[in-house]
Amino acid sequence: QVQLVESGGGSVLAGGSLRLSCAASGDTANTYCMAWFRQAPGKERERVARLYTSSGITNYADSVKGRFTISQDKAKNSLYLQMNGLKPEDTAMYYCAAGMRSYMCSSNYNYWGQGTQVTVSS
Q1: pLDDT for 104-118, tens place per residue?
Q2: Rounded Cα distance, 47 and 60, in Å
Q3: Closest to 7 (Cα-Cα) out of 91, 88, 100, 113
């Protein structure tokens, strides 16, 4: 139904910045929310940032608040995550996710990208 492809990951030094992109295709017209998740080895998947596509309302995990910014470009069917002030603990695989209904928007997203690796070194 919906395909999501992340890009923009890489390796940076602590304090650096990266901008992740998520390109959506398929039946995207009624996407209700989109989010960025991350998962590091040995840790559970964590929702980093969420965006309600109609209102633009955003939500961030405390661990990234003030450093990361989620945004969208509706015309391009794209989602972005600007990451500033990166820390080694931000190292993880980052995933883009989309939900078609409000109840999905906490953690039960039904569409996921393949992930893009972010590595932050000291």
Answers
A1: 999 999 999 999 999
A2: 8
A3: 113
